[in-house]
Amino acid sequence: MTGDIQSPRQHSSDESDPPNDTTLLTDERRNPNQVLTDILARLAHLDLHGEVAKIGTHGKSGGSYSDIFQGRLISNGKLVAIRELRAHIFPEAELKKSIALELRIWSDLDHPNILPLLGFSREFGPHPAFVTEWMSNGTVLEYVKTNPEASILQLSMGIAAGLRYLHKREIVHADVKSSNVLVSPTGVPLLIDFGLSRLLVISQVIMSTREAGGTFRWMAYELCGGIPPEHWRDSMRTVATKETDVWAYGMTVLELLAKTYPYSHLKTDFQVFSAIGKGSLPRKPSNLKSTEERALWQDICNPCWSRTASRRPTMSEVLEDLHDIEHSRLIKDCPNSGHK
Q1: Are residues 148 and 281 in the same domain?
Q2: Region labeled Disordered — which residues (predicted)?
Q3: How far apart are CA 57 and CA 69, in angstroms?
Q4: Around 107, how many Cα atoms within 13 Å sit in the side-chain half-sphere?
Q5: Which pTM does this prediction carry?
Q6: Which stretches of the chain are assigned E, i.e. beta strand?
Q7: Of 4, 101, 127, 203, whose Cβ has the fewest other Cβ atoms within 10 Å?
Q8: More confident site: 37 or 65
Q9: Does 178 fall in a domain?
Q10: How many distinct structural domains can be found in the chain?
């Protein structure tokens, strides 16, 4: 699937080298104010001061950590989304470094399945807000609910391609779920929300209870206290990894198949956390209506949920399996293939 949104950057390749300018963010001794100031100066070409007007004063939830407001570009009236982090849930120093890191990561990404960052604005509050094109189709789960003809396979392939791109650049998303995937006007899934993402060349993010808020249903076995016996000695620090992204990807595909969030029969985060830590996997959806959907459940979701992280497929392998499912469907649908 290809995107229809133009990014201000010109390069695009899954094989791009990881960003190497990490000095600003790796030095824990640096003042957070100076870290953010330096990043904003380096990204001055993305400063949309005086170019964005907010529409209304009521935003909608943009996940666990932000609110989304609608706005327009003053130059052409184009609708945009203004994403403001909820300052009250972050310590001030952490907030500034988080904004700096997200700007650092997001501004360098260029892929058809990553929502481009148009820029930032400091006109809507004490901290920079992120500005992107407005996606009227909403999240990918909202999209499949309102568009029953949408191909879950194609959407799953697009999400997988975006994640593979991040992983090849040594970036862990750390918050993969349907609410962090928007859909473009042409039906292309676009990954968003890099607030928890980390460059692996900088550090690994330890999943605290606050960071995991609202995300338990997508958290991997090892992040919920479940550690295979053979890895007990290596389990002192539970961190978000490429493998935990793969687990969450499987949960996201499940959302599209079941049309609801994982473990929907469990009502509290504690129940979900406990169930995952004990090795309980989601129930098979009762509404799978095609060979393709059953293959997504069996051949994509289930391998992503191996208790042993090293046994989970990589996102490159997931994409290969998705292409195999697509190929099988094309052979079946071709009247001259000889298959019945």
Answers
A1: yes
A2: 1-29
A3: 8
A4: 18
A5: 0.84
A6: 52-61, 66-73, 79-85, 119-121, 129-133, 171-172, 181-183, 189-191, 198-199
A7: 4
A8: 37
A9: yes
A10: 2
